[in-house]
Specification:
Blueprint lengths: L1 H12 L5 E3 L5 H11 L5 H10 L2 E3 L20 H12 L5 E6 L5 E5 L10 E6 L4 E7 L2 H13 L3
Antiparallel strand pairs: 1-2, 3-4, 4-5, 5-6
């Protein structure tokens, strides 16, 4: 899994698109953000955070852990984006935000995990109707593959 993530990161970095990464994050910081969110993050997202900390193509970065500090609640952090969506939009506690935009887009890891695997599906949460309105991918690795493909297919 980590090899596939590294390959996707390299593809995005060499695409010519402007990219921004928050910086590799250690397991201790990831464990702490899990405690702060009361959600265990899936292995593929943990590996993503370890490799780059979050980020991506400028303007559509994936939420992460900024400067290795899991307690930062800035926009673009898993903690900040999740807390904001919980407080302002009724985001259920079993969802952790991995992408949030002011245009009303909120994509999340769904830890309700009906199939009992370690990985979580990635879903779209409607900020307007305050409910899950679409399944985007079966897991974070599949989501990130789609993310990279959509941003590099014309490069």
């Amino acid at each position: 899994m980590e090899g596939k993530l590294k390959s996707l990161l390299e593809r995005l970095n060499s695409s010519g698109e402007p990219v921004f990464w928050q910086g590799p994050t250690g397991n201790e910081a990831i464990d702490r953000v899990e405690r702060l969110l009361s959600i265990k993050l899936p292995p593929s997202f943990r590996a993503f955070l370890r490799l780059c900390g979050g980020g991506g193509v400028e303007g559509s970065e994936i939420s992460g852990i900024e400067e290795g500090d899991p307690s930062l609640e800035n926009k673009g952090t898993v903690l900040g984006d999740t807390k904001r969506c919980r407080e302002e939009f009724g985001l259920p506690s079993h969802l952790a935000v991995i992408y949030f935009s002011e245009e009303g887009v909120c994509w999340c890891l769904d830890s309700s995990n009906p199939d009992l695997s370690e990985e979580y599906r990635v879903v779209s949460f409607s900020l307007f109707s305050e409910r899950i309105d679409a399944r985007l991918a079966d897991d974070f690795l599949g989501f990130f593959s789609q993310y990279v493909e959509s941003r590099t297919s014309s490069a």
